[in-house]
Amino acid sequence: MGALRDPRRLRTEVLAGLVVALALIPEAISFSIIAGVDPRVGLFASFTMAVSIAFLGGRPAMISAATGAVALVIAPVVREHGMDYLIATVILAGVIQVLFGVLGVAKLMRFIPRSVMVGFVNALAILIFLAQLPYLTDVPGIVYPMVAVGIAILVFLPKITKAVPAPLIAIVVLTTITVAFTLNVPDVADQGDLPESLPALFIPNVPPSLETLQIIAPYAVAMALVGLMESLMTAKLVDDVTDTHSNKTREAWGQGAANVITGFFGGMGGCAMIGQTMINVKVSGARTRISTFLAGLFLLVLVVGLGEVVGTIPMAALVAVMIMVSVGTFDWHSVKPATLRRMPKSETLVMLATVAVTVATHNLAYGVVSGVIVAALMFVRRVAHLTEVVDVAHPDDDTRVYAVRGELLWASSNDLVYQFDYAGDPDNVVIDMSDSHVWDASTVAALDAITTKYAAKGKTATIMGLNDASAERHGRLAGHLGGSH
């Protein structure tokens, strides 16, 4: 790997991995609490996910670890059935993700519009910021100037030098101040106990029965879908930031394999993390798998070997880092008045719908699905208004020619049958389809209804000008759909 032979690039990757590891600790602990498990379960999951995906994933420099989205999905399993069923769920979810990857589900990413991606990014930025508010509520007053100092370092230090990542300097400076002046402020140790040993192989003690499968399968499928969607969306975002292309299919089955490995080491599973990925790629400048691997390795070393030192890091330092990540992640151009005036209202609506649902539910999958649905409805509405029927010629007293123009699908063809003058037209009617395209059975049914209505009046309607694909579809379905208009 080129980075190993380039000291400057290697230093960037190493320091980026260290910064990400420090930022992962409180996040992993928090997500463990959400899932209802011991903090060590989340920390071990973050270690095994990061190290595994560094080798298996399709997107270099992306960080995968325990996440809030996965924690929310699996929390009921822990609460109702216990730890062993949780691990079984994680392993099954990983297997499902591998199957999805092999079946090419990742290719569905191309159906996600740009406006949904913008909404996804903006919603993530808002959620990252909102996640910091609990650390700024009911805390000693000194926390606020500490956060301000951290933000100042993050803003101004890169203007002076980029030799060392600004987040690392902010963490070191604020930790030094806290220890030197023995400040009584919330720190990492307050978030939960750190592990004192390495993760060990864990085989879930659940009966291999259909009943077990019925219990864990719904949660496993939900975890697989949420994890894949969040990971693939994050991978696409990193593609845009780095102007490179990644293998989404490999990323899909790689996430699944990483979850299987994580489950067998007693971890709670996970997926790509947008906040830590942005720290790694956008803030720290990492570009290779080395940073991802080292993030996991440093995490384990820090929590197991240097737990007491890590425990003294003030949460104010990590809050400052994450606030700047949220500011950097948000697509400010998308909300500028000039952009909003130029952008079609339907595109803005799709973006806002994605943001609103994601922020309201704290579930990225719900937000993305809602955005895609709104985008599809807006597209169908737009296409439906582009279809028209025009009276174009009267070759003789006994013939009238209509031209149908536009894309014909269920939304645009439902009113097609009402666009003709069945009683007033002459005996021979020609419907010219040269400037249209038949996309579905609804359109064929509409054409059947038109010819049937003319026949009922003793008149003949001839459809002509169909392109090859439309003619094939019409020839295969016409007269075989049943029903009437």
Helix content: 55-70%
Q: Tell me about the biggest sheet?
A: 4 strands, mixed
Please count the beta strands (DSSP E, at least 2 residues each).
6
Point out poorly predicted stretches. Answer: none
Quaternary assembly? single chain
Q: How large a portion of the residues is in β-strands, by DSSP E?
A: 5-15%
Structural class: alpha/beta
Radius of gyration: 29 Å
User: How many domains, as an integer?
Assistant: 3
Annotation field: number of helices: 20
- Give the rounded overall mean pLDDT: 90
Shape designation: elongated
**N- to C-terminal separation?**
65 Å
What report would you give on this structure?
The structure is a single chain. The chain has helices at 2-5, 7-35, 39-56, 68-81, 83-102, 114-130, 143-160, 166-180, 210-242, 248-264, 274-283, 289-305, 307-311, 315-329, 337-342, 345-361, 364-384, 410-413, 441-456, 468-477; strands spanning 64-65, 271-272, 388-396, 399-408, 428-438, 460-464. It has 485 residues and is α/β, with parallel strands linked by helices. It has three domains: 2-332, no CATH class; 335-384, no CATH class; 388-477, Transcription Regulator spoIIAA. Helix 19 (441-456) links the parallel strand 5 and strand 6 (460-464). Helix 11 packs across helix 14 (315-329). The chain crosses the membrane at residues 40-56, 85-105, 117-135, 141-157, 164-185, 215-235, 256-275, 295-328, 349-380.
Task: Compose a concise summary of this entry.
The protein is 63% helix and 8% strand.
Question: Notable features of this structure?
Answer:
485 residues; alpha/beta; Transcription Regulator spoIIAA; 3 domains; two-stranded antiparallel ribbon; 20 helices; 6 strands; transmembrane; SLC26A/SulP_dom
